[in-house]
Amino acid sequence: MASLKVFLFIKCVYIRKGVLKTFMIYGYARVSSKEQTLERQLKILKEKGVDIANIFTEFASGKTFKDRIEYQRLLEKCKVGDTIYFTSLDRFSRNITETSKQLEILENRGIKAVFIAEGISTEMLGVSKLIISIFSWVADQERQTLLERQKQGYKALKKDDKGRMISNRTGKVIGRRELILDSRQLKLLEDYKSGKINITKTELAKLLGISRSVLYKKILNEVSQ
Predict the structure, then answer these.
(1) CA distance readout (Å), 151 to 27, 127, 203
(2) Distance between CA atoms of 73 and 196, rounded to whole angstroms?
(3) Which is more confidently placed, 135 or 194?
């Protein structure tokens, strides 16, 4: 029984015309941030017979493959006839364009992709691409819906008399606190504007204890109005 398990999760054996070929089975698990856990995905992949040593894990966004270092390592290791298991399509990608591009790469290299939750694989010629496109569209729509809900949540927040959003939980203004100058800073600023002191804006910013960007965008703009 133990030898059978080893056989299942290490390799698939394919015999054709008297030639023995071994096809590897790999797994890929991804979450967006390190605050999330990979445990559920790892459990599913191991139940499918994937050796833990052959599971590549990633903490990266589902929108792009640009920063997927582990995924690129996985592709480098894969050979023609190998299989990669994903627990679901959204663990592979949440972007339609990226999904199509990566599936084409896998197909050209002869690597099979299996999406466990959806019960589909790239072996399902024609039908698989259609189904995967639909699931990709759904995943992308879910992401867009989440972003829209976040926007609506911000719009629903109360505003103060200056139009700044107020947190419903703390009752405080969301974002950076408004810059309030003390009497010394105001006097220094007035002297600069009147020409009583001849210094550069960089020197003025240092004396006021603020950054140059705040000086340009906030204070000098307000004073000139």
Answers:
(1) 36, 36, 40
(2) 64
(3) 194
Coil vs helix vs strand at 22: strand
Residue 135 · residue 129 · CB < 8 Å: no
Amino acid at 83: T
pLDDT digits (tens, 9 = 90+) for 160-182: 666 666 766 666 666 556 667 77
For residue 177, give both structure tokens.
């606190």
Q: Give the span between the Cα atoms of 125 and 123, in whole angstroms.
A: 6
Give the model's pLDDT for residue 27.
98
Q: What is the rounded average pLDDT of the residues 198-204? A: 84
Closest CA to 131 of 108, 113, 149: 113
Is residue 17 within 8 A of residue 11, CB to CB? The reply is no
What is d(CA 57, CA 26) in angstroms, rounded to the nearest whole number?
11
pLDDT at 13: 46
For residues 160 and 166, the answer to whether their CB atoms sit within 8 Å is yes
Do residues 120 and 111 touch, judged by C-beta distance below 8 A?
no
Q: Which residue is associated with the tokens 């992709």?
A: 113
Q: How far apart are CA 6 and CA 49, in angstroms?
A: 9
